[in-house]
Amino acid sequence: MEIRSLVKLSKGRAKICLDNGADFVLYKKEYESYGIEEGAELSEADYQEICREILIPRCKKRALHLLEKQDRSEKNLRDKLREGGYPSDIVDIAVDYINEYGYLDDARMAASHVRFYQDSRSKNRIRQDLMGKGISSEVIERVLEEEYTFDEQELIIKLLEKKGYDKENSTYEDKGKMYRFLAGRGFSSDTINSCLN
Question: What pTM, to 2 d.p., does this model score?
Fold first, then answer.
């Protein structure tokens, strides 16, 4: 395999691009020890050794570190690992490893998200948030059914009180401001209008 390019990154790392389409990131000591430089050849055996000895263990460790900080969806974890410069096949191996131990659970992550945001966001907004995180619609609907316990009208009234909204003395601008605030939380215009008026 020919090394098409070696692009130096921060912290002594470099992105290595091979002619077979594989891209990966190594530290200076690592790529120098394999004689990796632009235009040089990298043997299949050396590439497999780099994957086995460096990239796979590092990718698994990075995945665990990312999950240590917060629950993530599988899609989000995959995206983060790819952003870190790991090839797709290495990411697959790391995600399979994580799944073996049950550390990755889209339903658990979605349920946690619903419980955290249900007192400030509509069901629709939470649904959109979870879809953006790559959670399947079946999981989202099941989790919302099980976890979302708020009545949206009561929630809007609570949010209006928290914002100090006085519907008797509010101006047209005040209503507009509150409408935009509540619409940003994903509430429907009918529900917002019935609460504002």
Answer: 0.69
